[in-house]
Amino acid sequence: MKRGIIFDMDGTLWDSSPQVAESWNIAMAECGYEREPLTEKDMQSVMGLTMDVIADRLFPDAKGEKRDEILEACCRVENDYLREHGGRLYPKIRETMETLRKNYGLYIVSNCQAGYIEAFLDYYDFWDLIEDRQCYGDNGKQKADNIRILCERNGLDEAIYVGDTQGDYDSSMAAGVGFVHAAYGFGIVDADVPEISAFCELAGLLMKK
């Protein structure tokens, strides 16, 4: 039996919100788009949403091609910025993943833009830990669809999604996989599910199964 653990990104593996806010402010200035500078809290409030929804919330007065231009610039500058500066990695990610991969394949599915996961893997040199990845920016599909796509592509007989929000839980249920709540992240989950208060607790939790 092939088993996998699929990770969310923001609020589960790291917090990049200060760096993302800074990079988006740079990109908006390049595009000549004026609004109050984005803050860490602004970015945390939209983490986990798809990029089109984020654009609607953060650029409400930009329409059509102008909105698309701003979003494209933000995503491009953000990926470059994160590849150079990284974000705040939660403690003991590598050590815990090295333990987990003895019994599970490790994967990432996120609602981010194309290139975001790769910037994370580049900065922390985690390519040896993650077997495959899928995101909204690759195909425009919702998280539940991308979880299913990744499971099918990798021949997973059993999978668990680790995420921090209600949306992560809902997507896991729609995709037919298990769920563990990263309760240290950005959101809460209105369901009776296993949870961890730190990433390093994941190995111990799964060993009990």
Distance between the termini: 15 Å
Count of helix runs: 10
Spatial strand sequence of the major β-sheet: 5-4-1-6-7-8
The share of residues in extended strands comes to 15-25%
Order of helices and strands: EEHHHHEHEHEHHEHEEH
Low-confidence runs (pLDDT<50, min 5 residues)?
Answer: none
Instruction: Give the strand tally.
Output: 8
Radius of gyration: 17 Å
Layout of helices and strands:
Layout: E1 3-7, E2 14-15, H1 17-31, H2 40-44, H3 51-58, H4 64-85, E3 88-89, H5 93-100, E4 105-110, H6 116-124, E5 132-135, H7 136-139, H8 143-153, E6 158-163, H9 166-175, E7 178-182, E8 195-196, H10 201-207
Helix pairs in contact: 1-4, 4-6, 8-9
Condensed summary:
With 209 residues, the chain is α/β, with parallel strands linked by helices. It is built from 10 helices and 8 strands. Helix content is 47%, strand content 15%.
